[in-house]
User: Fold this.
Amino acid sequence: MSRIEDVAQAAGVSIATVSRALRGLPMVSAGTRQRVLLAAAELQYVASPTASSLASGRTMVVGVVVPYVTRWYFAHLIAGASEVLRRHGYHVLLFDVGGEGPERPMLLESRALFRRVDGVLVLSLRMQATERELLSNLGVPVVTVGVPGNGWTCVRIDDVAAATRATEHLVRLGHRDIAFLGGEPADGGDFPTPADRERGFVTTMRRHGLDVDPAWMLSTDWTAAGGLAAASRLLRGGRRPTAVVACSDELAIGVLAAARSLGLRVPQDLSVTGIDDHDMAAVHGLTTVAQPVNQQGRLAARIMLHEVAGKEARGSSAGDAGDAGDAVDAGDAVAGAAPGSPNQDGVVEVDSELVLRSSTAPPAVP
Amino acid sequence: MSRIEDVAQAAGVSIATVSRALRGLPMVSAGTRQRVLLAAAELQYVASPTASSLASGRTMVVGVVVPYVTRWYFAHLIAGASEVLRRHGYHVLLFDVGGEGPERPMLLESRALFRRVDGVLVLSLRMQATERELLSNLGVPVVTVGVPGNGWTCVRIDDVAAATRATEHLVRLGHRDIAFLGGEPADGGDFPTPADRERGFVTTMRRHGLDVDPAWMLSTDWTAAGGLAAASRLLRGGRRPTAVVACSDELAIGVLAAARSLGLRVPQDLSVTGIDDHDMAAVHGLTTVAQPVNQQGRLAARIMLHEVAGKEARGSSAGDAGDAGDAVDAGDAVAGAAPGSPNQDGVVEVDSELVLRSSTAPPAVP
DNA sequence: CTGAAAGCGCTTACAG
DNA sequence: CTGAAAGCGCTTACAG
Assistant:
């Protein structure tokens, strides 16, 4: 466990020079740098991150906050963000708050994040007002996936458009009796996805002059089991829809299972669409609206890196928390073009696209 | 962003006393503690983790290394470990190395982990010898799930027993023509799961005097898509097995899809078993050998905490890396009974159990 | 029970 | 281009 002083001694220079040489700063002669590098390698020296952080004020750590690690969507966001962050020398501090709603057991607290990270990535998490405030007061950039507002940059798909695509597809195939299976109570809070997808469905139906039967508007948790249960109820009813727009592939896979167990053939007796393009969607032949989840994670991470760099360049000295509020703009001005281009609300939208498989077909002629 | 000195001033005591009072150390009078707590609350003081770490030598961070975050098994391990760690005040530094094999792109390097964590959790990762050595030289406890050896404590199920359970079940139902779908080339390296499961299958078949047809021993990556592809080949063959033992539920779900697409009924024409009890297993009616994945993550984390505590109590002073080699034993001696009881190889085994659903039945009478 | 002081191992102006 | 020194914000013996 050699310290910087050991390296300095071995190389015959001061610790300041070692520090500069090892971090690749200019203002070090080639010869000196060479000697320092050699000495460091021989001593297997690695700078103490804790000491560097204390002295420099940056941690090289980004906090990643998620409601779940175990769900497909979140795992893929994490993977995407993590890869970009690691590639740029940043570490990932994972906060799994273990639940969706704002009244979940584990809340964000300042002792967890404060001075521990250079930035925070919030992934599709519905938060309490106090949590949002806490994040804003942290003094570091915050970037989200799926949570617009609060002055933070947000990466997301157009959820209205995604649901519209699925619905349009079914309508064009000739379906008129279409049910909707939503992901959860669309409470319209700071996480607009459920409400947006519902709106996309309803608006599209109305535009085509089709009825939206309240009894066919279902919602459940975002799981295949939930989809199975809800669809079983729906499909056992006397009058049956000929198609179901499910708000996620996991829900859709539940619908497929329900259909199978009731002896309904897909797509002959029932068409089903999902949203996501889950790993298992192809195996189930599921027609779905694919969204680039990994890419959204990567993009959010890149924007984060950009904002951190911008904040740094703006010249907060160590210990000065700076102001995260305008990190986006400042970042743009200081460190080149931002990746993706946020609109005036700070939202960067990525595209979703319909993927045709075997779970959809024209309705049977009655 | 108040510092400890602000609190000291406000409370009219020294910074040493603030430090003690806030951390709940004894040797602080009730009145003083009261005043300090009040002052700290008013100033919204939170100690700088970076400064604490530098001074104390502990980071309150545990590194969690995984080949993937996106797969069911790993996500659930992470979730379990993370919850225990967080509940005990530890943070989770996530290292997604992005691949299974020892020749994956992202290797563990000392600059990533060195002095950055108080311990490392390695989750079912096949490593290079240099990586294992690196971890051992880190000077902090290492606990694994699924990777025995190296002097580290390892949590796992008995994979031989798991595969045996599935095979026994099918044999008892009367199957004699059983195929095996393994997870990957069983290379017998430091990650014994694939080879163990294969052994459980083969041994059980032989014990019952049943043939193991090499053409029916398949393997692929651990995905449903891989299972679908492999099973499609298998089931199109002239002579068909009446049952398939798949090494994971995702593989098994792929087999189910293959059967469906070939018009084979499950379980009438083909019985299928998995291993895991994946979230989607129930929805697919899959008979499987359930393993408690979340619990393995939790257990590994608890053992880790225990070893960290033991190491601490053994009295390494700040900066002294201590010796992780005997952390297990020392932990036991110092900090009470260890959670779970490692055998002489340092392995803690948790139980798996057969879960009967609708994907298995006696073979059709020819 | 409390405080003064050393020290953790770096980075960063400031001089030169 | 290089070094001496201050400082980052805590914790921890050591005295008292």
Q: What stands out?
A: The two ends of chain A are 78 Å apart (CA to CA). Chain A touches chain B through 55 residues (CB under 8 Å). Residues 316-336 of chain A have pLDDT under 50 and may be disordered. The CA atoms of residues 62 and 119 of chain A lie 5 Å apart.
